[in-house]
Amino acid sequence: MRPWSSWLLSSQKALSRSKRGWWAGVTIAVLASLLILVGVVWLAASVTLFTVSSGGESSYMTVPFFILQLLLSVAMIGIGTYLVMISMWKVSASVERRGALLSQATEFELLKELRGLREQMPTVPMNSIAPTPGMVLGYRLHASRRNLWGLVGAAAVFVVFVGLGAVLVIVTYNKVSLQLGDYSAGALAIPFLIAAIWSFGYFVKQLLKLTSIGPTVLEISDYPIVPGKEYQIQLSQSGRLRIQLLDVTLVCYEEATFKQGTNIRTEKKAVFSQRLFRRRGINVDSNSSFQTQFDLMVPEGAMHSFNSDSNRVQWKIEIYGQAKGFPRVRRSFELIVMPHDLGPEPTNHPRSRERV
Amino acid sequence: MSRPAIHISLTDEKRVYQPGDVLVGQFVVDNPGDQRIHALEASVIWMTEGKGEEDMGVHFFDRQKGPLDARQLETPCKFSTVLPRSPFSYDGLMIRVRWAVRVRLFLESESELTEELFFRLGSVDSILGDLSA
Fold this sequence. Notes:
The structure holds 2 protein chains of 2 kinds. Chain A is of the alpha+beta class. Helix content of chain A is 44%, strand content 26%. Chain A has a 5-stranded antiparallel sheet with strand order 1-2-3-4-7, with no helix packed on it. In chain A, strands 5, 6, 8, 9 and 10 form a 5-stranded antiparallel sheet that branches. In chain A, helix 2 (17-55) packs antiparallel against helix 3 (63-92) and helix 2 packs parallel to helix 6 (146-177). Chain A is elongated. The termini of chain A are far apart. Chain B has 1 helix and 10 strands, in the order βββββαβββββ. In chain B, strands 2, 4, 5, 7, 8 and 9 form a 6-stranded mixed sheet that branches. Chain B is globular and about 45 Å long.
Protein backbone atom coordinates (compact mmCIF):
# COMPACT_ATOMS: atom_id res chain seq x y z
CA MET A 1 0.00 0.00 0.00
CA ARG A 2 1.31 3.35 -1.03
CA PRO A 3 1.56 6.12 1.57
CA TRP A 4 -1.19 8.75 1.30
CA SER A 5 1.32 11.45 0.41
CA SER A 6 2.56 9.64 -2.70
CA TRP A 7 -1.04 8.90 -3.67
CA LEU A 8 -1.88 12.56 -3.20
CA LEU A 9 1.04 13.79 -5.24
CA SER A 10 1.53 11.21 -7.96
CA SER A 11 -1.69 9.39 -8.79
CA GLN A 12 -2.93 11.02 -11.99
CA LYS A 13 -6.04 8.86 -12.15
CA ALA A 14 -7.27 9.39 -8.64
CA LEU A 15 -6.40 13.05 -8.49
CA SER A 16 -5.92 15.23 -11.55
CA ARG A 17 -3.20 17.83 -11.76
CA SER A 18 -5.62 20.73 -11.19
CA LYS A 19 -7.24 19.01 -8.22
CA ARG A 20 -3.86 18.16 -6.74
CA GLY A 21 -2.82 21.79 -7.11
CA TRP A 22 -5.98 22.91 -5.38
CA TRP A 23 -5.48 20.51 -2.47
CA ALA A 24 -1.83 21.54 -2.20
CA GLY A 25 -2.95 25.18 -2.02
CA VAL A 26 -5.57 24.45 0.64
CA THR A 27 -3.08 22.35 2.67
CA ILE A 28 -0.50 25.14 2.58
CA ALA A 29 -3.20 27.67 3.56
CA VAL A 30 -4.27 25.54 6.53
CA LEU A 31 -0.67 24.98 7.68
CA ALA A 32 0.10 28.68 7.23
CA SER A 33 -3.01 29.57 9.27
CA LEU A 34 -1.76 27.29 12.04
CA LEU A 35 1.63 29.03 11.81
CA ILE A 36 -0.09 32.41 12.28
CA LEU A 37 -2.12 31.06 15.19
CA VAL A 38 0.95 29.64 16.94
CA GLY A 39 2.82 32.89 16.24
CA VAL A 40 0.03 35.02 17.74
CA VAL A 41 -0.27 32.83 20.83
CA TRP A 42 3.52 32.77 21.23
CA LEU A 43 3.73 36.55 20.82
CA ALA A 44 0.94 37.09 23.33
CA ALA A 45 2.53 34.63 25.76
CA SER A 46 5.98 36.21 25.45
CA VAL A 47 4.70 39.75 25.98
CA THR A 48 2.51 38.72 28.89
CA LEU A 49 5.21 36.62 30.60
CA PHE A 50 7.79 39.36 30.11
CA THR A 51 5.43 41.98 31.57
CA VAL A 52 4.46 39.74 34.49
CA SER A 53 8.00 38.55 35.28
CA SER A 54 9.52 42.05 35.07
CA GLY A 55 6.97 43.23 37.66
CA GLY A 56 7.89 40.47 40.13
CA GLU A 57 11.09 39.54 41.82
CA SER A 58 11.88 36.48 39.70
CA SER A 59 12.77 37.51 36.18
CA TYR A 60 13.27 34.24 34.31
CA MET A 61 12.45 36.04 31.02
CA THR A 62 15.59 38.04 30.23
CA VAL A 63 15.48 40.90 27.71
CA PRO A 64 17.57 39.13 25.00
CA PHE A 65 15.44 36.00 25.38
CA PHE A 66 12.29 38.11 25.13
CA ILE A 67 13.53 39.88 21.98
CA LEU A 68 14.42 36.53 20.43
CA GLN A 69 10.93 35.19 21.13
CA LEU A 70 9.41 38.42 19.84
CA LEU A 71 11.32 38.17 16.55
CA LEU A 72 10.52 34.49 16.10
CA SER A 73 6.81 34.91 16.77
CA VAL A 74 6.53 37.98 14.49
CA ALA A 75 8.42 36.07 11.79
CA MET A 76 5.97 33.16 12.13
CA ILE A 77 3.01 35.53 11.75
CA GLY A 78 4.63 37.26 8.76
CA ILE A 79 5.58 34.04 6.96
CA GLY A 80 2.16 32.53 7.70
CA THR A 81 0.33 35.59 6.36
CA TYR A 82 2.47 35.61 3.22
CA LEU A 83 1.84 31.90 2.59
CA VAL A 84 -1.92 32.28 3.17
CA MET A 85 -2.11 35.19 0.72
CA ILE A 86 -0.08 33.36 -1.91
CA SER A 87 -2.00 30.10 -1.63
CA MET A 88 -5.37 31.90 -1.60
CA TRP A 89 -4.36 33.77 -4.70
CA LYS A 90 -3.35 30.52 -6.41
CA VAL A 91 -6.56 28.77 -5.39
CA SER A 92 -8.93 31.61 -6.25
CA ALA A 93 -7.35 32.77 -9.52
CA SER A 94 -6.76 30.57 -12.51
CA VAL A 95 -3.38 30.18 -14.18
CA GLU A 96 -4.57 32.31 -17.12
CA ARG A 97 -5.70 35.12 -14.85
CA ARG A 98 -2.43 35.18 -12.96
CA GLY A 99 -0.53 35.15 -16.22
CA ALA A 100 -2.75 37.86 -17.66
CA LEU A 101 -2.22 40.09 -14.65
CA LEU A 102 1.52 39.54 -14.74
CA SER A 103 1.62 40.54 -18.41
CA GLN A 104 -0.68 43.50 -17.80
CA ALA A 105 2.29 45.82 -17.80
CA THR A 106 2.80 45.12 -21.49
CA GLU A 107 1.18 47.21 -24.18
CA PHE A 108 -2.59 46.91 -24.19
CA GLU A 109 -4.48 49.19 -26.50
CA LEU A 110 -7.74 49.02 -24.54
CA LEU A 111 -6.14 50.64 -21.50
CA LYS A 112 -4.98 53.58 -23.60
CA GLU A 113 -8.43 53.87 -25.14
CA LEU A 114 -10.12 53.83 -21.73
CA ARG A 115 -7.73 56.49 -20.46
CA GLY A 116 -8.62 58.69 -23.43
CA LEU A 117 -12.34 58.20 -22.85
CA ARG A 118 -11.96 59.12 -19.17
CA GLU A 119 -10.56 62.49 -20.18
CA GLN A 120 -13.49 63.07 -22.53
CA MET A 121 -16.14 61.81 -20.12
CA PRO A 122 -15.08 62.39 -16.52
CA THR A 123 -18.38 61.17 -15.07
CA VAL A 124 -18.20 57.82 -16.84
CA PRO A 125 -16.08 55.65 -14.54
CA MET A 126 -13.08 54.06 -16.22
CA ASN A 127 -11.17 53.15 -13.09
CA SER A 128 -12.76 49.77 -12.43
CA ILE A 129 -10.67 46.65 -13.03
CA ALA A 130 -9.71 46.91 -16.68
CA PRO A 131 -10.22 43.85 -18.87
CA THR A 132 -7.27 41.92 -20.27
CA PRO A 133 -7.04 40.10 -23.61
CA GLY A 134 -9.28 37.03 -23.74
CA MET A 135 -8.50 33.48 -24.84
CA VAL A 136 -11.74 32.79 -26.75
CA LEU A 137 -13.36 36.22 -27.14
CA GLY A 138 -11.76 39.64 -27.34
CA TYR A 139 -11.60 40.69 -23.69
CA ARG A 140 -11.55 39.03 -20.34
CA LEU A 141 -13.51 40.64 -17.49
CA HIS A 142 -12.29 40.45 -13.91
CA ALA A 143 -14.40 39.98 -10.82
CA SER A 144 -14.41 42.53 -8.04
CA ARG A 145 -12.08 41.58 -5.19
CA ARG A 146 -14.50 42.10 -2.36
CA ASN A 147 -14.52 38.38 -1.42
CA LEU A 148 -10.77 38.33 -0.88
CA TRP A 149 -10.96 41.37 1.41
CA GLY A 150 -13.75 39.68 3.40
CA LEU A 151 -11.43 36.73 3.94
CA VAL A 152 -8.49 38.92 4.96
CA GLY A 153 -10.72 40.94 7.31
CA ALA A 154 -12.10 37.78 8.93
CA ALA A 155 -8.58 36.42 9.40
CA ALA A 156 -7.42 39.70 10.95
CA VAL A 157 -10.37 39.79 13.39
CA PHE A 158 -9.68 36.15 14.31
CA VAL A 159 -5.99 36.87 14.99
CA VAL A 160 -6.84 39.89 17.18
CA PHE A 161 -9.38 37.97 19.29
CA VAL A 162 -7.10 34.95 19.65
CA GLY A 163 -4.24 37.26 20.72
CA LEU A 164 -6.32 39.06 23.33
CA GLY A 165 -7.84 35.81 24.58
CA ALA A 166 -4.38 34.22 24.86
CA VAL A 167 -3.04 37.15 26.90
CA LEU A 168 -5.93 36.91 29.33
CA VAL A 169 -5.63 33.11 29.62
CA ILE A 170 -1.90 33.41 30.39
CA VAL A 171 -2.53 36.11 32.99
CA THR A 172 -5.16 33.88 34.62
CA TYR A 173 -2.84 30.85 34.52
CA ASN A 174 -0.07 32.88 36.11
CA LYS A 175 -2.37 34.07 38.89
CA VAL A 176 -3.68 30.55 39.50
CA SER A 177 -0.16 29.12 39.67
CA LEU A 178 0.84 31.83 42.15
CA GLN A 179 -2.40 31.12 44.10
CA LEU A 180 -3.47 34.77 44.03
CA GLY A 181 -7.17 33.85 43.80
CA ASP A 182 -8.03 36.51 41.22
CA TYR A 183 -9.96 35.10 38.26
CA SER A 184 -11.24 38.37 36.71
CA ALA A 185 -8.90 38.02 33.72
CA GLY A 186 -10.21 34.51 33.14
CA ALA A 187 -13.79 35.76 33.13
CA LEU A 188 -12.78 38.48 30.70
CA ALA A 189 -11.11 35.91 28.44
CA ILE A 190 -14.37 34.00 27.84
CA PRO A 191 -16.06 36.58 25.53
CA PHE A 192 -12.81 37.02 23.61
CA LEU A 193 -12.48 33.28 23.08
CA ILE A 194 -16.15 33.05 22.01
CA ALA A 195 -15.53 35.91 19.55
CA ALA A 196 -12.41 34.09 18.30
CA ILE A 197 -14.43 30.92 17.64
CA TRP A 198 -17.15 32.92 15.87
CA SER A 199 -14.61 34.79 13.72
CA PHE A 200 -12.90 31.50 12.86
CA GLY A 201 -16.27 30.15 11.67
CA TYR A 202 -16.78 33.29 9.61
CA PHE A 203 -13.27 32.94 8.17
CA VAL A 204 -13.99 29.32 7.13
CA LYS A 205 -17.29 30.42 5.53
CA GLN A 206 -15.50 33.15 3.55
CA LEU A 207 -12.82 30.64 2.54
CA LEU A 208 -15.47 28.22 1.27
CA LYS A 209 -17.19 31.02 -0.62
CA LEU A 210 -13.94 31.84 -2.32
CA THR A 211 -12.91 28.32 -3.17
CA SER A 212 -16.04 26.14 -3.27
CA ILE A 213 -17.05 26.44 -6.92
CA GLY A 214 -13.68 27.30 -8.41
CA PRO A 215 -12.73 30.26 -10.61
CA THR A 216 -15.25 31.78 -13.01
CA VAL A 217 -13.89 33.19 -16.26
CA LEU A 218 -15.98 35.67 -18.24
CA GLU A 219 -14.96 36.89 -21.67
CA ILE A 220 -16.73 39.42 -23.85
CA SER A 221 -16.58 39.99 -27.59
CA ASP A 222 -16.05 43.77 -27.35
CA TYR A 223 -15.48 46.42 -24.72
CA PRO A 224 -16.62 48.93 -23.39
CA ILE A 225 -20.35 48.29 -23.77
CA VAL A 226 -22.67 50.48 -25.83
CA PRO A 227 -26.45 50.23 -25.21
CA GLY A 228 -28.44 48.58 -27.98
CA LYS A 229 -25.48 46.60 -29.29
CA GLU A 230 -25.27 42.82 -28.99
CA TYR A 231 -22.25 41.14 -27.39
CA GLN A 232 -21.22 37.54 -26.91
CA ILE A 233 -20.22 36.31 -23.48
CA GLN A 234 -18.13 33.22 -22.86
CA LEU A 235 -18.56 31.70 -19.41
CA SER A 236 -16.05 29.18 -18.22
CA GLN A 237 -16.59 27.58 -14.82
CA SER A 238 -14.01 25.29 -13.34
CA GLY A 239 -14.24 23.55 -10.00
CA ARG A 240 -14.42 20.26 -8.25
CA LEU A 241 -18.06 19.86 -7.41
CA ARG A 242 -21.50 19.36 -8.79
CA ILE A 243 -22.93 22.86 -9.08
CA GLN A 244 -26.62 22.78 -8.21
CA LEU A 245 -27.41 26.16 -9.72
CA LEU A 246 -25.56 28.65 -11.87
CA ASP A 247 -27.36 31.91 -12.50
CA VAL A 248 -25.98 34.83 -14.54
CA THR A 249 -27.76 38.20 -14.45
CA LEU A 250 -27.14 41.65 -15.90
CA VAL A 251 -27.93 44.22 -13.22
CA CYS A 252 -27.96 48.02 -13.08
CA TYR A 253 -27.59 49.61 -9.64
CA GLU A 254 -28.14 53.14 -8.46
CA GLU A 255 -25.99 54.06 -5.46
CA ALA A 256 -26.56 57.23 -3.46
CA THR A 257 -24.46 58.49 -0.56
CA PHE A 258 -26.09 60.93 1.86
CA LYS A 259 -25.78 62.36 5.33
CA GLN A 260 -28.17 61.17 8.00
CA GLY A 261 -27.53 63.09 11.18
CA THR A 262 -23.85 62.71 11.84
CA ASN A 263 -23.58 59.49 9.81
CA ILE A 264 -22.83 59.08 6.15
CA ARG A 265 -24.96 56.37 4.57
CA THR A 266 -24.88 54.72 1.19
CA GLU A 267 -27.98 53.17 -0.30
CA LYS A 268 -27.91 50.85 -3.27
CA LYS A 269 -30.87 49.80 -5.36
CA ALA A 270 -31.16 47.57 -8.41
CA VAL A 271 -33.15 49.41 -11.08
CA PHE A 272 -32.79 46.86 -13.83
CA SER A 273 -32.05 43.17 -14.03
CA GLN A 274 -32.11 40.68 -16.85
CA ARG A 275 -31.29 37.00 -16.65
CA LEU A 276 -28.62 36.03 -19.16
CA PHE A 277 -28.12 32.37 -18.31
CA ARG A 278 -29.45 29.83 -15.81
CA ARG A 279 -28.79 26.13 -15.46
CA ARG A 280 -29.28 23.55 -12.73
CA GLY A 281 -27.16 20.49 -12.07
CA ILE A 282 -23.85 21.20 -13.73
CA ASN A 283 -21.21 18.53 -13.36
CA VAL A 284 -17.86 20.23 -13.47
CA ASP A 285 -15.06 17.78 -14.00
CA SER A 286 -11.72 18.77 -12.58
CA ASN A 287 -10.08 18.01 -15.94
CA SER A 288 -12.32 20.21 -18.05
CA SER A 289 -14.29 23.30 -17.13
CA PHE A 290 -17.95 23.91 -17.95
CA GLN A 291 -18.16 26.31 -20.89
CA THR A 292 -21.07 28.10 -22.48
CA GLN A 293 -21.78 31.18 -24.58
CA PHE A 294 -24.73 33.54 -24.42
CA ASP A 295 -25.68 37.01 -25.62
CA LEU A 296 -25.64 40.25 -23.72
CA MET A 297 -27.37 43.48 -24.68
CA VAL A 298 -27.76 46.55 -22.53
CA PRO A 299 -31.16 47.94 -23.62
CA GLU A 300 -31.13 50.88 -25.99
CA GLY A 301 -32.02 53.99 -24.04
CA ALA A 302 -30.36 52.73 -20.88
CA MET A 303 -28.36 55.09 -18.68
CA HIS A 304 -24.63 54.84 -19.09
CA SER A 305 -22.25 54.15 -16.20
CA PHE A 306 -22.08 57.26 -14.07
CA ASN A 307 -19.93 58.25 -11.14
CA SER A 308 -19.93 61.53 -9.25
CA ASP A 309 -18.94 62.25 -5.65
CA SER A 310 -22.16 60.99 -4.04
CA ASN A 311 -24.07 59.28 -6.83
CA ARG A 312 -23.38 56.30 -9.00
CA VAL A 313 -24.98 54.24 -11.76
CA GLN A 314 -23.25 50.91 -12.04
CA TRP A 315 -23.70 47.99 -14.45
CA LYS A 316 -22.63 44.49 -13.45
CA ILE A 317 -22.79 40.90 -14.54
CA GLU A 318 -23.57 38.94 -11.40
CA ILE A 319 -23.07 35.21 -11.09
CA TYR A 320 -24.71 33.15 -8.38
CA GLY A 321 -23.43 29.65 -7.82
CA GLN A 322 -24.70 27.05 -5.40
CA ALA A 323 -22.83 23.84 -4.68
CA LYS A 324 -24.12 21.16 -2.33
CA GLY A 325 -23.00 21.69 1.26
CA PHE A 326 -21.40 25.07 0.55
CA PRO A 327 -22.64 28.62 1.08
CA ARG A 328 -24.13 30.41 -1.93
CA VAL A 329 -21.46 32.21 -3.90
CA ARG A 330 -21.91 35.56 -5.64
CA ARG A 331 -19.37 36.97 -8.06
CA SER A 332 -19.77 40.27 -9.83
CA PHE A 333 -18.03 41.67 -12.87
CA GLU A 334 -18.35 45.41 -13.36
CA LEU A 335 -19.07 46.66 -16.87
CA ILE A 336 -18.47 50.12 -18.26
CA VAL A 337 -21.50 51.19 -20.28
CA MET A 338 -20.82 54.16 -22.52
CA PRO A 339 -23.31 56.88 -23.53
CA HIS A 340 -24.93 55.38 -26.61
CA ASP A 341 -24.42 58.27 -28.98
CA LEU A 342 -20.68 58.71 -29.19
CA GLY A 343 -20.16 60.13 -32.68
CA PRO A 344 -17.15 62.36 -33.32
CA GLU A 345 -15.66 64.13 -30.32
CA PRO A 346 -17.19 67.59 -29.85
CA THR A 347 -14.91 70.37 -31.08
CA ASN A 348 -13.37 72.80 -28.65
CA HIS A 349 -15.59 75.78 -28.01
CA PRO A 350 -14.60 78.19 -25.26
CA ARG A 351 -15.91 76.65 -22.03
CA SER A 352 -15.00 79.41 -19.63
CA ARG A 353 -14.41 83.10 -19.98
CA GLU A 354 -14.28 86.10 -17.71
CA ARG A 355 -14.86 89.61 -18.85
CA VAL A 356 -14.28 92.87 -17.03
CA MET B 1 -39.85 99.03 -6.24
CA SER B 2 -39.87 95.96 -8.52
CA ARG B 3 -36.94 93.59 -8.40
CA PRO B 4 -34.97 92.71 -11.50
CA ALA B 5 -36.01 89.52 -13.31
CA ILE B 6 -33.88 87.25 -15.49
CA HIS B 7 -35.30 85.67 -18.65
CA ILE B 8 -33.37 82.83 -20.28
CA SER B 9 -34.30 81.36 -23.64
CA LEU B 10 -32.84 78.71 -25.93
CA THR B 11 -33.07 78.71 -29.71
CA ASP B 12 -34.23 75.09 -29.72
CA GLU B 13 -37.64 75.12 -28.05
CA LYS B 14 -37.71 71.31 -27.67
CA ARG B 15 -34.85 71.58 -25.20
CA VAL B 16 -33.56 68.09 -26.05
CA TYR B 17 -29.97 67.90 -27.24
CA GLN B 18 -27.51 65.23 -28.23
CA PRO B 19 -23.78 65.18 -27.45
CA GLY B 20 -21.93 67.47 -29.83
CA ASP B 21 -25.00 69.67 -30.45
CA VAL B 22 -24.45 73.40 -30.08
CA LEU B 23 -26.53 74.88 -27.29
CA VAL B 24 -27.40 78.45 -28.28
CA GLY B 25 -29.37 80.81 -26.08
CA GLN B 26 -29.63 84.25 -24.59
CA PHE B 27 -30.74 86.01 -21.45
CA VAL B 28 -31.90 89.48 -20.51
CA VAL B 29 -32.46 91.22 -17.20
CA ASP B 30 -35.80 93.00 -16.95
CA ASN B 31 -36.44 95.86 -14.56
CA PRO B 32 -32.86 96.43 -13.53
CA GLY B 33 -33.97 99.81 -12.15
CA ASP B 34 -31.38 101.72 -10.22
CA GLN B 35 -29.88 98.58 -8.74
CA ARG B 36 -26.14 98.43 -9.17
CA ILE B 37 -25.01 95.07 -10.45
CA HIS B 38 -21.60 93.83 -9.33
CA ALA B 39 -21.34 90.85 -11.64
CA LEU B 40 -23.27 88.54 -13.87
CA GLU B 41 -22.57 84.85 -14.33
CA ALA B 42 -23.94 82.49 -16.93
CA SER B 43 -23.18 78.79 -16.79
CA VAL B 44 -24.19 75.50 -18.32
CA ILE B 45 -24.15 72.84 -15.63
CA TRP B 46 -25.25 69.32 -14.79
CA MET B 47 -26.44 68.47 -11.31
CA THR B 48 -27.73 65.45 -9.45
CA GLU B 49 -30.90 65.37 -7.40
CA GLY B 50 -32.51 62.65 -5.33
CA LYS B 51 -31.54 60.63 -2.32
CA GLY B 52 -27.80 61.28 -2.46
CA GLU B 53 -25.95 64.49 -1.77
CA GLU B 54 -26.17 66.90 -4.69
CA ASP B 55 -23.24 66.82 -7.09
CA MET B 56 -22.60 69.36 -9.80
CA GLY B 57 -20.35 69.79 -12.80
CA VAL B 58 -19.74 73.00 -14.77
CA HIS B 59 -19.50 72.63 -18.53
CA PHE B 60 -19.54 76.31 -19.54
CA PHE B 61 -18.96 79.43 -17.47
CA ASP B 62 -19.04 83.12 -18.39
CA ARG B 63 -18.62 85.96 -15.90
CA GLN B 64 -19.08 89.68 -16.58
CA LYS B 65 -17.68 91.93 -13.92
CA GLY B 66 -19.59 95.11 -13.09
CA PRO B 67 -20.64 97.63 -12.44
CA LEU B 68 -23.22 97.00 -15.17
CA ASP B 69 -25.76 99.63 -16.11
CA ALA B 70 -29.39 99.16 -17.16
CA ARG B 71 -28.63 99.52 -20.86
CA GLN B 72 -26.07 96.72 -20.72
CA LEU B 73 -28.45 94.44 -18.80
CA GLU B 74 -31.45 94.99 -21.09
CA THR B 75 -29.41 94.07 -24.15
CA PRO B 76 -29.82 90.31 -24.83
CA CYS B 77 -26.67 88.49 -23.84
CA LYS B 78 -26.01 85.52 -26.10
CA PHE B 79 -24.11 82.36 -25.27
CA SER B 80 -23.28 79.14 -27.05
CA THR B 81 -21.42 75.96 -26.22
CA VAL B 82 -20.91 72.52 -27.71
CA LEU B 83 -22.49 69.94 -25.43
CA PRO B 84 -20.32 67.13 -24.10
CA ARG B 85 -20.70 63.36 -24.38
CA SER B 86 -21.84 62.84 -20.82
CA PRO B 87 -23.52 62.72 -18.38
CA PHE B 88 -26.89 62.17 -20.00
CA SER B 89 -30.04 63.49 -18.38
CA TYR B 90 -31.54 60.70 -16.30
CA ASP B 91 -34.58 60.17 -14.11
CA GLY B 92 -33.83 57.13 -11.99
CA LEU B 93 -35.33 55.74 -8.82
CA MET B 94 -32.88 57.38 -6.44
CA ILE B 95 -30.77 59.51 -8.76
CA ARG B 96 -31.72 62.25 -11.15
CA VAL B 97 -29.22 63.95 -13.48
CA ARG B 98 -30.35 67.33 -14.84
CA TRP B 99 -28.77 69.85 -17.17
CA ALA B 100 -29.47 73.57 -16.85
CA VAL B 101 -28.48 77.01 -17.99
CA ARG B 102 -28.02 79.06 -14.82
CA VAL B 103 -27.74 82.83 -14.71
CA ARG B 104 -26.74 84.51 -11.46
CA LEU B 105 -26.93 88.23 -10.78
CA PHE B 106 -24.89 89.75 -7.97
CA LEU B 107 -26.66 92.85 -6.67
CA GLU B 108 -25.12 95.73 -4.77
CA SER B 109 -27.17 94.86 -1.70
CA GLU B 110 -25.07 91.69 -1.47
CA SER B 111 -28.08 89.64 -2.46
CA GLU B 112 -28.19 87.35 -5.46
CA LEU B 113 -30.76 86.59 -8.07
CA THR B 114 -30.68 83.23 -9.81
CA GLU B 115 -32.64 81.82 -12.70
CA GLU B 116 -32.38 78.35 -14.24
CA LEU B 117 -33.61 76.87 -17.47
CA PHE B 118 -33.50 73.08 -17.71
CA PHE B 119 -32.87 71.07 -20.85
CA ARG B 120 -32.12 67.43 -21.62
CA LEU B 121 -28.93 65.91 -22.93
CA GLY B 122 -29.21 62.51 -24.63
CA SER B 123 -32.25 60.30 -24.78
CA VAL B 124 -32.15 57.96 -21.83
CA ASP B 125 -35.36 56.20 -20.77
CA SER B 126 -36.47 57.23 -17.31
CA ILE B 127 -36.69 53.91 -15.43
CA LEU B 128 -35.89 50.58 -17.01
CA GLY B 129 -37.63 48.23 -14.59
CA ASP B 130 -36.98 44.63 -13.69
CA LEU B 131 -37.24 42.48 -16.80
CA SER B 132 -36.28 39.21 -15.19
CA ALA B 133 -39.07 39.24 -12.59
